[in-house]
């Protein structure tokens, strides 16, 4: 089956299975209920266990994150719409080439809304190694790491998604560092290796 046809099938699959959930969230893609978002943020704290999730690779294969259990995993959560995230991809890849080994894996996970945007953009960069897409659904536990509380006033705040985000997962699936330094900073390598 040609890769382009597979890409279309995967896109349709995600649309069909995510639409009922999105409609249940008042059509907004996610409930405006801050309590629910705060609860999700609590699940992304150091020491918690990363909940299972599935990803799509550049060959349009469905991958279970559990395949990485038994290794330390450094995750770069990014999106094509986030210029700071795009700018750090090369730094992340450069360090991963130096440090990656049998027990330490570096992966990039795109949270682009549109699968085609990710596929198209991936053709312009050397991203083939350990690069995945999960979409931007908040049901997916990897998105919880991107949530941040922004104070609008002394009495009101909102929860937003902020990228890029770097996360380190222990071999047992627990969160070692839910807010690792960016790969262009000296602390990044120290945090990965400690």
TrEMBL record:
Signal peptide residues on this chain, from the entry's feature table: none
Domain Thioredoxin-like fold: residue ranges: 70-175
Any one Pfam family match given in the protein's UniProt record, by short name: Thioredoxin_8
Protein name: Thioredoxin-like fold domain-containing protein
Organism in which the protein naturally occurs: Acidiluteibacter ferrifornacis
Higher taxonomy: Bacteria, Pseudomonadati, Bacteroidota, Flavobacteriia, Flavobacteriales
């Amino acid at each position: 089956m040609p890769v382009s046809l597979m890409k279309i099938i995967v896109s349709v699959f995600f649309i069909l299975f995510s639409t009922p959930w999105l409609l249940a969230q008042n059509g907004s893609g996610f409930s405006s209920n801050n309590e629910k978002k705060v609860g999700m943020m609590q699940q992304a704290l150091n020491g918690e266990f990363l909940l299972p999730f599935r990803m799509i690779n550049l060959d349009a294969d469905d991958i279970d994150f559990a395949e990485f259990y038994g290794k330390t995993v450094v995750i770069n959560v990014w999106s094509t719409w986030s210029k700071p995230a795009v700018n750090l991809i090369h730094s992340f890849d450069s360090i991963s080439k130096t440090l990656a080994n049998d027990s330490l894996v570096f992966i990039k996970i795109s949270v682009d809304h549109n699968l085609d945007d990710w596929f198209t953009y991936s053709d312009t960069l050397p991203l083939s190694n350990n690069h995945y897409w999960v979409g931007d659904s908040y049901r997916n536990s990897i998105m919880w790491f991107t949530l941040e509380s922004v104070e609008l006033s002394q009495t009101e705040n909102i929860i937003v998604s902020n990228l890029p985000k770097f996360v380190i997962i222990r071999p047992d699936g627990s969160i070692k560092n839910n807010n690792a330094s960016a790969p262009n900073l000296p602390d990044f390598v120290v945090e990965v290796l400690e």
